[in-house]
């Protein structure tokens, strides 16, 4: 659990740290984030960034195949393949006031700027395979059998008030707690980095 | 419990407790009933530009006294029936999609369908309080005038699919968050049988107080427990106080009492700006109950200035009182301008919405 000011400090430290670290596949989940505040009220800061995602190409021959597990497509492939639709994923890392942990909010837009439906998003390279295969899918949420909260659902962004999709923070809190317990000294900024790594098992955060 | 089964065999202390407990439970139940029965007047008109051809134009307004604890998706079947039967032409009615409706206030504010209706109404009241006063002098609550749109909901501003199913999931999510805020886990709600959990939503859908509270009473804190240090007056068995004196033995509800929660589920709404949510411990560090005044002063000190201390006693004024404070705003809870001496824990037990949350809307005084 974090306090609001620990969250704010940790995010700003992360942004500063990775500003000077070069981009690679491994560091890309931590890069490109910027800090934002509400225009008139303090204490509602959050991180945001825009990344590009493609349409996932499932291969019928290989049941384990998923684009997000392969190396990043190289420039040549992207330019020559006209079938690849490009989507913009606006990503936010906000502070959950209820659970006192970071929380991942996002929306995905097509090239015309229209937000995608849940089914549409599941067809992009944003999610890891098991999310796509989860049971209990409706048009407005993805659930896991017998879990108290849906894995993925819609809610209002805590600062902007606009509808966003978000992964329920309970999932990541437990995992992060376990990871942090193993580290000998945990700075709060490490907590955000660790949390982003755990999130990476659900969402492809590479850019 | 005595094996002889009559009250005569109970010790006096326990008998006193059960009298006071009964009195306390009476007040808690009273406020919960009043909250449940609260309604607000809505006036609904379809956007004239969207009225299908051949509509009966003389009848195009639907009036409804809506329960504060209910939700717009639950009212839609009744609203739709009215418009389909009395206003729309049959063929036009068939073409309207079930989940593309959305509401705006007369001032053009989009209504969030996942908010309880009471919150929507109070939020509207406070937004009017920030505008120059024109028609706020009437004592009767004004109808909330709404425009109903039948197509093309703005999906960049509203959550998708305002169906009763989505509404139920949103409602259960809020209940579990409230549970988490109180105890640091959601075991009380998730520990209920699925049938009981569903029963909570059924109670809302059917607007049945008994059905809802049959389950909710198992998970909602009561005010029957004693507080750590009560500054109240000495105990008297004839007293009608809602707060039991601190000398009481712990009752069965002690562990789950309103004053033992980690934090009360509270959200604060201003007419502009994001919804505020913070930890609200039931007792302050000095052991005194956390009051509404203290909460508002710490979060909105410009609107609720801190009370300066009383001046030191002097010969001419041996019992000085602190100077009165001019509040620039007032807190609306369940439509009531709440007294600032109210205790946050008590509000959490008695005036919360059906989703477990105490929603405080702050309006400006003229």
TrEMBL record, chain A:
Signal peptide boundaries: none
A molecular function (GO) term: Atg12 conjugating enzyme activity
Gene3D superfamilies per record: 3.30.1460.50
Cellular component annotations (GO), alphabetically ordered: cytosol
A Pfam family this chain is assigned to: Autophagy_act_C
Gene Ontology biological process terms from the UniProt entry: autophagosome assembly; autophagy of mitochondrion; protein modification by small protein conjugation; protein transport
Keyword vocabulary terms for this entry: Autophagy, Protein transport, Transferase, Transport, Ubl conjugation pathway
Keyword flag Transport: yes
Coiled coil: none
Family label: Belongs to the ATG10 family.
Protein name: Ubiquitin-like-conjugating enzyme ATG10
Organism name: Dendrothele bispora (strain CBS 962.96)
Automatic annotation (TrEMBL), chain B:
GO cellular component: Atg12-Atg5-Atg16 complex; autophagosome; mitochondria-associated endoplasmic reticulum membrane contact site; phagophore; phagophore assembly site membrane
Identification of the protein by name: Autophagy protein 5
Protein location: Preautophagosomal structure membrane
Membrane topology value: Peripheral membrane protein
Sections of the chain in a coiled coil: none
Keyword Ubl conjugation part of the UniProt annotation: yes
Protein purpose: Involved in cytoplasm to vacuole transport (Cvt) and autophagic vesicle formation.
Subunit structure: Conjugated with ATG12.
Similarity comment text for this entry: Belongs to the ATG5 family.
Chief location bin: membrane
Keywords associated with the record: Autophagy, Isopeptide bond, Membrane, Transport, Ubl conjugation
Domain annotation Autophagy protein ATG5 UblA: ranges: 36-149
Residue ranges annotated for the Autophagy protein ATG5 UblB domain, each copy included: 264-362
A molecular function (GO) term: Atg8-family ligase activity
Pfam family, one: ATG5_UblA
Spans annotated as Disordered: 221-258, 303-324
Originating species: Dendrothele bispora (strain CBS 962.96)
Residue ranges annotated for the Autophagy protein ATG5 alpha-helical bundle region domain, each copy included: 165-221
Biological processes annotated in GO: autophagy of mitochondrion; cellular response to nitrogen starvation; piecemeal microautophagy of the nucleus
